[in-house]
Specification:
Distance between the termini: 33 Å
Order of helices and strands: HHHEEEEH
Helix content: 55-70%
Strand order of the largest sheet: 1-2
Oligomer: single chain
Low-confidence stretches: 104-110
Radius of gyration: 32 Å
Length: 213
């Protein structure tokens, strides 16, 4: 076998190595008489590594595709609370000709509780009234919940959403790249196997000819 390694220096942006296409099998193994058992085993090891990475990235993709809608739903709800809380203030700024009685009436209207439902589990919901508040509580994972002012919560969720969407995009790109490399390695394996079969047949033909001679 030649000293050519299976993986070259070329990698994708996340460091997954590119599989080389073996155009010249004889040149890769070193000589017409070289054993192909070692190279074929190396190819199978490379395929196993690619499949392991593919399984991990597929699991990651599934997790992100579940996580992103939850972030969007939470962000939408908090933005709604912010709009509801600030709606009357914006109206006051835009309508300076309102008299004091009307302003008092609007201020009191803005403090009416919001009746809604919240999820207890996948199939159970409960009704609740939300008082006017400038604070929300967010689950951060690992049984950790922290309180945030509404603007800070919106900023945090938007950054998490951007990061999750970017991670999902990169994961999908990596999966496509991995599957291309798997195809290349499977083609390499088939080409080397076929080359070895052809070589054995040619040897058998030569030996048979020599015996007849």
């Amino acid at each position: 076998m030649s000293s050519v390694s299976i993986f070259g220096e070329e990698k994708n942006p996340r460091g997954i190595p590119k599989a080389p296409f073996i155009a010249n099998v004889e040149g890769y193994v070193g000589s017409p008489d070289s054993d192909v058992e070692g190279p074929l085993k190396n190819f199978q090891d490379a395929i196993a590594k690619y499949r392991y990475m593919d399984a991990n990235l597929t699991q990651r993709r599934t997790g992100l595709e579940d996580k992103i809608p939850d972030i969007k739903k939470t962000l939408h709800m908090i933005e709604f609370l912010q709009e509801r809380r600030e709606g009357k203030k914006k109206a006051d700024e835009d309508e300076e000709d309102l008299d004091s009685d009307e302003e008092v009436e609007e201020s009191e209207g803005g403090k009416k509780p919001l009746t809604t439902t919240f999820e207890l589990n996948d199939t159970l919901y409960a009704e609740a009234q939300l008082e006017d508040t400038d604070t929300v509580y967010l689950w951060l994972g690992a049984n950790v919940m922290l309180s945030y002012k509404i603007p800070a919560a919106i900023s945090l969720l938007r950054s998490k959403l951007d990061a999750a969407e970017a991670s999902l995009k990169a994961t999908i790109e990596d999966l496509e790249f991995l599957r291309e490399q798997l195809t290349v390695m499977e083609v390499n394996t088939a080409r080397m196997y076929n080359w070895d079969v052809k070589r054995r047949r040619e040897r058998s033909a030569v030996e048979a000819s020599e015996k007849k001679g």
